[in-house]
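Section 4.2 – Deliverable D4.2 (structural model, holo form)

The reporting period included a commitment to supply a predicted holo structure for the target in complex with NG1. Inputs used:
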Amino acid sequence: MSEWANRLANIYGSFVATQQARYDAALRRFGEWYGPGQVMVYRVPGRVNLIGEHTDYQQGYVLPVALDKDFVFIARRRDDAQVRLHNMEAALFPPRQFTGFSDIAHAPAGDWENYIKGATQMLWQKAGRPLCGADILVAGAPPHGVPRGAGLSSSSALTVGAAYVLAHLNELPLSPAELAWLCGEAEWYVGTRGGIMDQFIALLGRQGHALFLDCRASGQGPRGIPQFHTMHVPLPRGYNIIVADSKVRHDNIRSDFNVRVAEDRIGVALLKRRFPYVAYLRDLEGMAWADIEPLLPETLSEEELQALGLRLEEIIDVKLPRSGEPFHVRARCRHVVSENARVRASVAALRDGDALRFGQLMNEAHASVRDDYGASRAELEVLIRLAREVDGVVGARLTGAGWGGCIVVLAREGCEADFAAHVAPRYARETGLEPDIFVCHAGDGAGVVGQQVIG
Ligand code: NG1
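Output (structure tokens):
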């Protein structure tokens, strides 16, 4: 096997032939667009969260894994500050070009270029000196790319990939964790800002491991960048992670998401009156839920909120939908608190190699995100029920924000074929939708694949 094939085998296991064809096609295309010569090849993965849902924005715990579905970036440093972009899927993501600077004008909302611009601007600001631009080719088409809009973090991977490439070509001395935090900040550029999970796992993923991430900064590093506690946790041997995409998408996921953010914050504001040190739900760790529960109303209307001296505009600075639905404060907070405890327990179970216990925690997490957080939907429930019917499945839950997207399943090795044969046709029959099902091999975070010369 050639050295190159060896490298690909290290990354993708037994799927080298198709990956090699994919990389070859991208290298050829790079040559056609930018001309022959030496290039650097990089990859950056998507992710799936195993447990720890809706905890990150309350400074809690998450446990994602990096997928072996990824973006490939091929790049060559330029002598000027131009960033030129080509995508293997040029019809969907047309060529773009801009100048690297610390204040880059936005492309229209929704343009793929904005993810790269956000990363570029952030690096220029951080470096405090002019940097070199690059000619970049991005390859992320299915089936090897990160599925889009499925909650597997394809957009964060794009930002992280661009930042990684430009930082590497400019020899910026940033650790993966520093880069991860900066990429989180860079997402402000595109107007979305989740937690820091997606960027951390895209950079710090490790083969065969999940990443425990504490979303509360533990201090400041030498370059003024917040530091976070992370720990790689081995995945159980003899088990696979299966991801199934329900193919349902929530039309307006942001507004439901923001309502949950507000409900958590209302809980915090109320608890603060009794426990002044509570700034995030994370601060309730170690306290008995029985002491907390009486302080949180089951539901609260906006009028009742005002009567308590709390103004919604001060709780959340985005407009929430006017549905007339009261805020479900108690249940939402209960989910976040119990979910943090489940992540902790999951780390212990995985370190003990106790896959069954971990599967059970995944099932409990799903019940909580469905019943207390109200973030499931009918199609996801069908998918989860069918998944659990398969012999060998030990846990199944929705992953990501919810209301659609994917489920993640822990299953004994060897039952993948049965899983697909059982779940796919029944799900199609009940919902009229064809799920995408794949086994996820927990892979490494973003990195250099190698150097190549295009003839
Ligand atoms: P998904 O749906 O996977 O993009 C969203 C948030 C995460 C996290 C999860 C819920 C964004 C960009 N991502 O993830 O930070 O809060 O929901 O656990 O908002």
